[in-house]
Amino acid sequence: MAAPTPLPPSLRRGLVAFSGSLFINNKTWDSGTVLSSLPLQMMLYFNVYYFPVWCLAEGIMLHLKYHLLPWHYQFLLVTAFLILSLAEGSRLYLGYLGNLQEKVPELAGFLLLSFLIQLPLLLFLLTDIQVIHLPLEVPMHSLFLVFLLLEMVAAFLALRIMTKQLAAQFYLRQFLEGGGDCEHLSVEEVLSAQASSLES
User: Fold this and answer.
1) Which residues, including other chains, have CB under 8 Å from residue 34's CB and lie 6 or more apart?
2) What confidence tens digit (pLDDT) does each residue in 146-168 have?
3) pTM (predicted TM-score)
4) Which pLDDT belongs to residue 186?
5) Which of 7, 16, 107, 119 shows the greatest Cβ crowding within 10 Å of its Cβ?
6) What is the mean pLDDT of residues 92-104?
7) Which of the four pLDDT bands, split at 50, 70 and 90, describes residue 178?
8) What is the C-alpha to C-alpha distance for residues 85 and 51, in angstroms, rounded to an integer?
9) CA–CA distances in Å: residue 197 to residues 13, 164, 170, 180, 192
10) In angstroms, what CA-CA distances link 86 with 75, 80, 149, 179, 197?
11) Is the pLDDT of residue 122 over 60?
12) Residues 185, 193: contact at Cβ < 8 Å?
């Protein structure tokens, strides 16, 4: 018998539905192995807590040096800050969703946002000599860059494993639909049989 909860029933149902959409119960439909990347998930977890600190510090530093910058750098830095802030929220969401639910499109979107938007803007903020660097700014951006690079490597490795597993499931499904008897075969044996049949 379940213990009574102090939460109202409507709030409890909403939380259960929300957590059910993020954390699915069965992540191992066919393979029996979990494909989610623990290192990527750990980095995403810590990045979720670091991002508001970075955002607050960058906002304060931008406010302090704003009047010292030329007008075009004022525009560039405010735009870069806004784009980084907006892209980071969606990037972290896609990373969580793609990694925990083992969804390739979301994880690929996370990787593309990281590589095409976040990395160039962060490198601009770190390396441009016309940007006035305050003492706290370089360590904050450097730590953000380390998070970004490590997450990109971990996401690439996780994406490679997930796509390899999806390809194996696809070939196994094709083999089974073709009438093959493969109950006693492993995935590697099925893939090698599929590859040899494709070569001939």
Assistant:
1) 27, 28
2) 999 999 999 999 999 988 888 88
3) 0.71
4) 61
5) 107
6) 92
7) confident
8) 8
9) 51, 19, 15, 12, 9
10) 17, 10, 19, 50, 49
11) yes
12) yes
CB atoms within 10 A of CB 125: 22
Both structure tokens of 96: 């969580």
**Is pLDDT at 145 greater than 90 in this prediction?**
yes
- Residue 189 CB coordination number (10 Å): 11
Q: What is the spatial distance between Cα 144 and Cα 124, in angstroms, rounded to a whole number?
A: 13
Residue type, 171: Y
Residues 6+ apart with CB under 8 A from 7: 15
Cβ pair 56, 125 in contact under 8 A: no
Percentage of the residues of the chain whose pLDDT score is greater than 70:
79
Dig out the tokens for 87 from the structure: 């892209």
Read off the tokens for 33. Answer: 């192995």
Question: Whats the size of the chain, residue-wise?
Answer: 200
CA neighbours closer than 13 Å in the CB half-sphere of residue 124: 15
Tokens of 197: 């049949």
Q: Is 200 helix (H, G, I), strand (E, B) or coil?
A: coil
> For residues 27 and 101, is the Cβ–Cβ distance under 8 A?
yes
Longest dimension (CA), the chain: 74
Spatial distance between the Cα atoms of 46 and 92, rounded to a whole number of angstroms: 11
